[in-house]
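Archive entry. Fields below.
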Amino acid sequence: MYSRVVTHSGAPTSPDPVARSGLPAARLREIYRLMALARGLDERAWILNRSGRVHFVISAQGHEGAEAGICAALTPGRDWLLPYYRSMAAMLAFGMTPRELMLQQFGRADDPGSGGRQMPAHYGGAAYRIFSGSSPVGTQALHAAGIALAAKLRGESQVAVAMMGEGATNQGDVHEALNFAGIHRLPMVLLVENNGYAISVPAEKETAVRDLAVRAAGYNMPGVIVDGTDVLGCYLAMREAVSRALAGDGPTFIEAKVTRLTGHSSDDQQTKYRTEDDLAEGRGRDPLPAFRDELRAAGLLDEAAEAAITAEVRGLVDDATDFAEAAADPDPGTLTRHVYAEPDDAGQLHPPPAPGVG
Amino acid sequence: MYSRVVTHSGAPTSPDPVARSGLPAARLREIYRLMALARGLDERAWILNRSGRVHFVISAQGHEGAEAGICAALTPGRDWLLPYYRSMAAMLAFGMTPRELMLQQFGRADDPGSGGRQMPAHYGGAAYRIFSGSSPVGTQALHAAGIALAAKLRGESQVAVAMMGEGATNQGDVHEALNFAGIHRLPMVLLVENNGYAISVPAEKETAVRDLAVRAAGYNMPGVIVDGTDVLGCYLAMREAVSRALAGDGPTFIEAKVTRLTGHSSDDQQTKYRTEDDLAEGRGRDPLPAFRDELRAAGLLDEAAEAAITAEVRGLVDDATDFAEAAADPDPGTLTRHVYAEPDDAGQLHPPPAPGVG
Amino acid sequence: MAIHTFIEAIREGLRDEMRRDGAVIVLGEDVGKKGGVFFATDGLWAEFGDDRVIDTPLTESMIAGVSIGAAANGLRPVAEIQFADFIFPAMNQIIQEAARIRYRSNGTFGCAITIRAPFGAGVHGGLYHSQSVEAFFAHVPGLKVVIPSTPYDAKGLLRSAIRDPDPVIFLEHKKLYRSVRGEVPDGEYTVPLGRATVNREGSRVTVVTYGLMVHHALNAAERVAGEGIETEVVDLRTIRPLDAATVLASVRKTGKCLVVHEDNRFGGFGAEIAALVAEEAFDYLDGPVTRLAGPESPAAPYSSVLEEAFLITPEKIAAAIRTLAAY
Amino acid sequence: MAIHTFIEAIREGLRDEMRRDGAVIVLGEDVGKKGGVFFATDGLWAEFGDDRVIDTPLTESMIAGVSIGAAANGLRPVAEIQFADFIFPAMNQIIQEAARIRYRSNGTFGCAITIRAPFGAGVHGGLYHSQSVEAFFAHVPGLKVVIPSTPYDAKGLLRSAIRDPDPVIFLEHKKLYRSVRGEVPDGEYTVPLGRATVNREGSRVTVVTYGLMVHHALNAAERVAGEGIETEVVDLRTIRPLDAATVLASVRKTGKCLVVHEDNRFGGFGAEIAALVAEEAFDYLDGPVTRLAGPESPAAPYSSVLEEAFLITPEKIAAAIRTLAAY
Ligand SMILES: Cc1ncc(C[n+]2csc(CCOP(=O)(O)OP(=O)(O)O)c2C)c(N)n1
Ligand SMILES: Cc1ncc(C[n+]2csc(CCOP(=O)(O)OP(=O)(O)O)c2C)c(N)n1
Ligand SMILES: [Mg+2]
Ligand SMILES: [Mg+2]
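PREDICTED_STRUCTURE:
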């Protein structure tokens, strides 16, 4: 029985990130680059929104560290992601390109997740094992359990990772998913990105507990709390969860304490319900400068390298923006397509048979 | 923060039930009488079913000890019960008569809960503060939270007790109810009668934890485990929960380990999925003889008193059966009544205004 | 009389009922300090405080279930579901519990709750912030379903809903919130549930609709009036219980009936109106009862191009009126 | 061909599909050792074991949601909801997720799941073991809704449902399980989804129905045949997608249409049939499209007296046929 809650301290336990993580310096810089790219795309989306070029933005700023660290322990192509609307960094980590993300932001025909049918930040990518997400929160926890069940029954090594905010964890579906995953010891991880708010509803009105991870004990799985500004702490927690999952030891509940640096979305004015102190405290917990300083201090990121990343990000963001803005809208004639399966060119309706269980 | 799980041992901690419970001998005999009466009515229902006089029976046999003990700490008229289909003993404790319970079993017009509209063991009694229950399990946890919220907002001293099986606790609604009750520290108790089965599904396929009460920590409330054969242990646990609730200290999660002495219902053949050892072990945990022996050993129940109770129970059960069997069926002309509120004689649709919150 | 937007009328209705009856509470996601994502509850928290304006966790089944319990113990909860699209987790509590409590208890318990929810497309909400959900609730005995189209009705119907002893699903087309203004008396008034209204008299064709579509229908009626087609527009206001008499009286007069809603057509609420008219006004019909409804897609897609293709417009309604009139 | 009960046909359909395709799994409450409360899955656990016959916790949303995920990762889940009355906790997963996954992903993901549920009254099930739920699902684009009436169709349609790439709600009227027997071929055969069938030819009145009511309609047709009223009975079998052509062809022939279902009338599925006929067969109608449906009560009460008053019977159908024929 697990009742213990492991906490990975926010303070890097070692001055040497390479030694601490076992990841080579280049990989660490790559993680930083991914975070910077996510931030760059996100900031651009706000500019596009404020200048009236996109209707809506829901932001991942403040969540990049947790996602980049978590995803560094996953294997794209093998593992499954069940994202939510703050999963921009995870999308990049799993192979989505800046252009694809901007196509999604603009709702263009070539948006890989929905062809412009879903709101911005409603991700999906069959080519990347990123399952299609909806707006109703928490539902994906059950989909992750089902994906993990299929992997387990077929004896395939895969980990299914459901990502969501702390508010979503109070939904009944999450309880039912954790209960089922615990019973069958499924290769699944629930990643809760706890930013202390559900839109305007503060933590103390969302639950009576400080740490959601304590709930893991109620499903006989480990609950792990990590500081979302400690990118490598997130990585280490996930590395352990992944090895448990692949060893058949079952699911893990990881709670990353993060901060929401923007309003809930472009429709929200958070100064209406958050104090200046609260906002300032949040800005102080930005994972991007934190990780940059960590790499700098360890001599893994010099001025030149950082400048190169900044320049590359700007270039990628510009390119993605121009590409997506110029891209074609969906054909209105497709409005009622794909409500049901459509026969392929061979007139075949059925997907190729998957390997069986029996 | 509560993470501790209090366990009230099954072995009576004191040879003197009066000293242990602080309840006078007469009250203890009354509790035993209530259990015996519930058992008597329940056994009769099976006879009526097997002889084709009632369509359906769902049994409380094995659950009476927990319910009688729990309800002894409650105050009928003040507190609210949200029962389920094994709450026969609780119904008696809250004032329902054997005749009323048999009217419900037969689905007669004078069934106080539903006028014959609901299946047997679907209780309700406005006169007793017993809220009307449905079949979908777990929903009543949220109703209990709402009742407790109203009591708290109006500053009225009331406790709302939701009763259900362990299988029901896995429903999303129960998670959402506990979460809400924890946030608002509501005067509510969740009583889980854990009999180890959800129809045929055994404990290990219902959850990955042995004790559901460990989940209480996830909502910042105490989780208490009691042995359902230890009637006074149940009483003591509930007494503590009630004083916490009335003191404004919030909800309590009580898990009573009970045994299901019969099939799930008259439609179920439990030998198909339970071993003889399992069934025998269950029979060994019958709370009725356990409590009788406890009182006997303490010299609180002599032969004569016991015989008197047995005789009285038989008389009450016979009377209730004859009365209910002879009672009138609902008038088919009422089929579509009470779908919506009906004007009272004064032509008034609205219930009398309740005391406000403001 | 003051001129108010639709959302202001809703807010006033809530405020006035809370002032009138201390048992009325408001609960939902972000209804407190933030005042709701559409600001329907703006200012209520400041006036009535934490006890009566409750920011709930992100759990719709809890919002409905706690409302049911609170009502059983004497309160008059008004719950907000942030978007109608998110009411589905509460389906079991609304349909199996709220709607059936009075019936299953043979009238010994009631369920005096109101559940407000913004619905409908046209605001770039995509598949999950644009849905119409009225058909699911209109089918359920024990529920009342209200869909106002004007600020006056919104306030008057909301008051009646809150005072009603039975569970009321109160659906507000979000496109109306700021786009529609109208006169709203400051004093006490209510609009009764279960009564339709004829917003425009006409002799050739009856259009039966509700919510935002009422405005589109009136607009369409104007367009075809120039062509000599006099259209009568019936605003149902409450779709359950339905004011069948008003609908039938109009169709018996015009002999032609067009039913309009934004929700998809198959099995939508319009089918009930069409079936009613086809059965009860058969001998009066000079043309087929016609339905103009949203396409058979799960909801309005996000892309403006697709959303426009999805929406019911005055032009589409006018075209349908012409076809029916010419029949 | 062997004669089988309806429930045997369901069981065989499940077994044969599990033998044919190793990706097919069955999950639900008590589907394992117990074989389901109606024994629809009896014997499957013994043959296929814990991996493919999964006793789930008492959590319907989980049953639907896990099925969705398992299907996304290559399995073919067949979920059992123990009683249709208990499908409401899964509404969000079924309607907002399963039904919309293909559309919202622009066809890049699918949802090949089948959800079986026993529904309907007549077995003393009371308010929560008697409900009809088809109207809620028939309205939803992206779902298919199947309601067989014979053992032959039950097995053939279930096989098609399991092989179908889209989510299918498969509703079995529990009264049919043991009361209806019929021929079921042992070998491989399927019955296509989306095709109605004419179970009885007639010239005067068309009865459109499905499930148990098909048998009551045929019985009623016999009764009135003696009086010279030749009734045609259309068994829809799939209510979404609807085989409108078969319905319209029949009504255009007879000129009279009676729609029958056990579910309550207002906003029920019958409204869609009536609306379709009223619009598409208007010029052929010699009488009002008529609906015979359950009363406006939440479900069938437990008391035999009340339950009998609730139920649709061959007598009631015969009376409705006579009235319509005489119009
Ligand atoms: C079922 C449901 N109800 C309401 C909403 C509206 N909504 C969108 S995000 C959100 C808050 C989510 O909070 P949290 O889960 O903590 O994630 P965060 O936005 O803080 O990252 C709400 C209420 C929704 N999307 N789904
Ligand atoms: C939502 C829902 N799903 C399924 C059922 C059918 N059902 C009735 S009782 C039961 C098992 C309940 O088990 P538990 O909660 O442990 O209570 P117990 O019967 O063991 O006392 C089931 C599955 C139901 N009543 N409600
Ligand atoms: Mg949050
Ligand atoms: Mg149990």
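CURATOR_NOTE: The first helix of chain A runs from residue 17 to 21.
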